[in-house]
Write a structure and sequence with these properties.
182 residues; 8 helices; 14% strand
């Protein structure tokens, strides 16, 4: 075939036919505050990545049993994914289910990647306020993060791949689980 079309033509044809598999990611966010950003994220990255469901634990799981809720997170949300994307808005750091989703992600040794939304807040020192467990893993070198503005498919792909490639020995999942919102 290369003789008929030439090596360049075959390479071009093969590149046009090959589409890399869509990586499956779980997106954790505060549904009450950041739903619009989740919708935009899903729309923008739909062709490259399969964002797993809009599964609000607050709507789906009516249980106070921590073991049951954690099992549901692992089985219904994280199975088949390679990374959790945390959309970090104004109230994300206060949400117990975001903390639990991050914990379950780290228990499964999946990648952890944060996207700071324009709605984020800062402390008095000017530092962005993120969920504590996420911050532990930024400090350990395990989690990666970027800002919403200027995020491109190429940049997202680079950071996603970097998060998945991080050595699991950097995981810091020692913090007690958040017991309530706020």
């Amino acid at each position: 075939m290369a003789g008929l079309l030439g090596d360049d033509a075959v390479s071009t044809l093969m590149a046009a036919l090959y589409k890399p598999p869509r990586r499956k990611v779980f997106v954790s966010y505060h549904h009450g505050g950041d739903q619009g950003y989740y919708n935009e994220f899903s729309r923008f990255f739909h062709d490259q990545f399969e964002a797993v469901f809009d599964n609000s634990l607050e709507r789906q799981i009516e249980s106070d049993n921590v073991d049951y809720v954690m099992q549901r997170i692992r089985d219904n949300h994280l199975t088949g994914t390679s990374c959790t994307i945390v959309l970090i808005g104004a109230q994300t750091y206060q949400r117990k289910y975001v903390d639990w989703e991050i914990k379950a992600t780290l228990d499964k040794q999946h990648g952890l990647f944060g996207i700071v939304l324009p709605t984020h807040i800062q402390n008095q020192s000017g530092q962005i306020i993120v969920p504590d467990r996420f911050n532990d893993n930024v400090n350990s070198g395990y989690a990666v993060w970027t800002h919403w503005h200027g995020l491109t498919v190429q940049r997202f792909t680079e950071l996603l791949n970097a998060s998945i490639a991080k050595p699991t020995l950097l995981i810091d999942n020692s913090r007690a689980m958040r017991q309530r919102n706020g």
